[in-house]
Sequence to fold (140 residues):
Amino acid sequence: MCSTNYSKEEILELLIAQYKFQIEFDPVVVKGMNFNFQSSIFTWRDSCDLIAPKGLAKIYHQRFKIDRPLLELENMLTNEYHNTLSDFCEYLSKHAKRETIVPIKLLGKNCRTAAIFKALKKHLIEEGIDATELKLDIPE
Fold:
């Protein structure tokens, strides 16, 4: 597997998709928000009912496997009235790596499905989930 950087726009799309998912299940999340690059981090965090800035920084630092000091992200999120989603997305686009799943050879043919399954299983195991019984059933 290879890795590439996310674009700033892709990061914003991820944040918006997460928000849309949250409003379906979390009654505290403010509905009808239209987040964009000019939205303050405070508005985003408050509207989405997210945890305190330092805890949120730790989660994003781990989830995106950022190889920079955690303090950088903490400072950005703690200064939530001044910084915008543009600042946050820009930071993640520079330092977060997106895994690129390359098809693997399976019975002499390239198979993207098998590669995706293998990557998902690996990530589940890394999160402490017992995935030993997961099997890939490829239709003929």
User: Anything to note?
Assistant: The first strand starts at residue 2 and ends at 5. The chain has a mean pLDDT of 90. The CA atoms of residues 40 and 84 lie 4 Å apart. The longest helix spans residues 8-25.
